[in-house]
């Protein structure tokens, strides 16, 4: 659960939004700021926090939901 909270926090920071607006069920289509530039901001933020995770998990770039991002990062941490 801690990883989920951390990822939600980082996504909120990347999109410059209040964390309360983002949940595990949030999808990119739910948030106006989560457009193509928002996606890049999220990836950059996650790379900073999780040691270049997008290099290890190329599917992260196409992720369109918080649940998908959490799943991919947690799988990469288990490797």
Task: Summarize the structure in words.
The model has no long low-confidence stretch (mean pLDDT 95). Helices cover 57% and strands 0% of the residues. The protein has 4 helices and no strands. It is mainly alpha-helical and 79 residues long. It starts with a helix and ends with a helix.
User: In the CATH scheme, what's the topology name?
Assistant: Non-ribosomal Peptide Synthetase Peptidyl Carrier Protein, Chain A
Cα distance spanning the termini: 18 Å
> What do the pLDDT scores average to?
95
Number of beta-strand segments: 0
Main sheet properties = none
**Which segments are poorly predicted (pLDDT under 50) over 5 or more consecutive residues?**
none
Fraction of helical residues: 55-70%
Outline, from the CA principal axes? Answer: globular
Quick take:
The chain has 79 residues and is mainly α. The chain has helices at residues 2-15, 36-49, 53-56, 66-78. It has one domain: Non-ribosomal Peptide Synthetase Peptidyl Carrier Protein, Chain A, CATH 1.10.1200.10.
């Amino acid at each position: 659960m801690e990883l989920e909270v951390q990822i939600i926090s980082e996504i909120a920071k990347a999109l410059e939004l209040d964390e309360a607006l983002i949940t595990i069920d949030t999808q990119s289509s739910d948030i106006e700021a989560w457009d193509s530039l928002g996606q890049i901001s999220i990836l950059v933020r996650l790379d900073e926090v999780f040691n270049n995770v997008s290099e290890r998990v190329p599917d992260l770039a196409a992720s369109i939901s918080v649940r998908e991002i959490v799943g991919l990062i947690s799988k990469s941490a288990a490797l």
